[in-house]
Amino acid sequence: MARRKSIGIRSRLKGLISSQLLGKLARESGFVKRLRKIDPVKFFWTLVLGFATGRERQIAGLRRAYQGSTGTHVVPSSFYDRFSPSLVTYLKLVLGHLVDTVAAPTHALRGTLKWLKDLLVIDATVIRLHHVLKNAFAACRTNHTQAAAKLHVVMSVLGRGPHTVKITSERTHDSKKLIVGPWCRDRLLVFDLGYYRFGLFDAIRRNGGYFLTRLKANANPIITALHRSYRGNSVAVVGEYLQDVLPRLKRSVLDAEMEFTFRRRVYGGVRATAHVRFRVVGILNEETNQYHLYVTNLPVDQISAEDVALIYRARWEVELTFKHLKSSFRLEDIPSEKKHIVEALIYASLLTLIASKELLQAVREKLRSEGRRIKEGRWVRLFNCFADRILLMVNSAPRHARHLARLLEPLLLQEILDPHKNRPGLLDQVQNGTTYARA
Known about the structure:
Layout: H1 9-16, H2 19-29, H3 40-49, H4 59-70, H5 76-81, H6 85-102, E1 118-128, E2 148-156, E3 162-169, E4 187-191, H7 198-206, E5 210-214, E6 222-226, H8 242-245, E7 253-263, E8 273-285, E9 290-296, H9 305-311, H10 316-327, H11 339-366, H12 376-395, H13 398-415, H14 426-432
Parallel strand pairs: 1-4, 4-5
Antiparallel strand pairs: 1-2, 2-3, 5-9, 6-7, 7-8, 8-9
């Protein structure tokens, strides 16, 4: 096989987490007490890569995928018994190991963000479950969904997987699961209004980090200073409340420092009132004549107001990740009524995401000169289409795997290239401060 047509899928996945480590974690978790007919390593890869079998993700389909990729006949009851609470512990241990490996950026930020260590996007998504699980995973809108889990993810836009992962019921508020500390120093955290809390903003700043989010529509801080001067007889805004001056503004960009007042958490029986100052950026939408308002602590001399609005678009990276998890990796396809099986399938989807990103990184390294034409959405569709062959490649003997690689890997390298050569990706637009418009 020609070197230029090789990705090394099998070696890349085996290098991501070795068979020896998988066996060790299986024993530590209690998933395996003695080796039986079902191999824990091949079982793991079946969970990760067997999502594409059938129209629905079912245990029966995973059993058939295991048999087809290993050539081993397994009794249905024996395979079903493998889905136990110890399997959840096993997958959590594997995920914890991989998060430490893949969360770090694969390269440095460029352009307007090159002075930052990393750009982290934070969000949560809801997974609807069987109503029998309403006590374990209480939903918010019980008129149509009685049970729902919420998946909280912190993810680097430059990494190959999530930074942190937490699973709760839908009723758990987003901001309660974001615990900041020294880890956020020199990093930019981008999130939506679900994490809107001034105590959180202040904690990020005190730890040397940066944040960016939308400003609530009813927020009414005092304008203390302007970061941009305007020619002519402009409206005087310093010392005024934001909501009082917004209807009178005509400028296309508002960039100002504003003072916010909020109540801190109760400490020692006392709940103190705090005053903090943050940067507020407003970009006028000429179609609606309304401002898109953002609050941040990004320095004025490093990031312009226009770039602030553009950087916020990076939040769509985690939205796209959730879309891939649900539409391609079967995150919402969880028909079980048992809590531990639900958790196992959620962790399996996250491990599928990591495996997909690892192989995408291998493709990027192989086609480095064509980097702009390699889009993650296109790769996810390819990965979904050929996941069964990749599973067969991983679980087969080396000789058979080499034969499969000669057939599959050149095809993947050919199909991954986006025909739109000059269309930059979202991250390129954010780093370079540009937007793409179709001719």
